[in-house]
Amino acid sequence: MSDLRAELVGAGGVSIPHYRMLLPPGWQGYDVDMETERELVAAARDRLAGAGRPDLAGRLGAQVGDALRSLRSQNAFAYAFAGESSPTWALGAASLVGIKRLASPEVPLDAIVEDAIRNRGAAALGDDHRIVRWTESSPVVLDGVRAVSFLVHYLIAIPGSRRTQAVQWTATVAHGEDLAEDDPVLLAWTALFDHHIATFTWSVR
After folding, report:
1. Residue 203 backbone phi and psi in degrees, to 5
2. Which of 148, 152, 178, 188 lies 20 to 30 Å (CA to CA) from residue 162?
3. CA distance linking residue 164 with residue 101, whole number of Å
């Protein structure tokens, strides 16, 4: 991994303690607030204009707005994806989203972890058992093409919450239907996300 990895520092609209986490080389992290939405839409509009396709700006702006509103409705506080400076192999339909999960009397966090271990093959990431990771796949349609969305979930309890609050990072990789679950490409993606989620630490200020 390059020493020029991005550092993601949490401080978004959703209230969680400050944290630090390294991102893959060339990846960019964002808050999910309205200011970020405006910046991303403006940047996309500029790129499309430079490529001679200003006609696509309105549609892309609406898609970005819809995506960020959907994230905010799920208590998301940050997301990241590969930028133009990322290695070629890392470019594509991959993203990383952070959301805040809250326990309820009906669905305590311990029950979520227990279900993930029993039914979804979840396991601890690292020897300290502070991060629980599991994967799942589901069919999707991208631009009219049938594909598969491969998801890697990581759950980290928020300190001091008595396991009533947690951060969940979800990495998503879209791939063709013909790719097996144990394909080296997916294993490489999982190893990449494992490596960077393992750098997650809570910051004391």
Report:
1. -100, 135
2. 152
3. 8
The closest of 25, 153, 21 to 87, measured between CA atoms, is 25
Contact by Cβ (8 Å): 99, 74:
yes
Polymer length of the chain: 205
Of 182, 86, 171, the C-alpha closest to 125 is 171
Task: Please give the Cα distance from 137 to 124 (Å, whole number).
Answer: 19
Q: Residue 76 forms beta bridges with which residues?
A: 99
Element containing residue 80 per DSSP (H, E) = strand 76-82
Per-residue pLDDT of 60-114, as tens digits, reads: 566 666 777 788 888 888 888 877 665 544 445 688 999 999 988 777 888 888 9
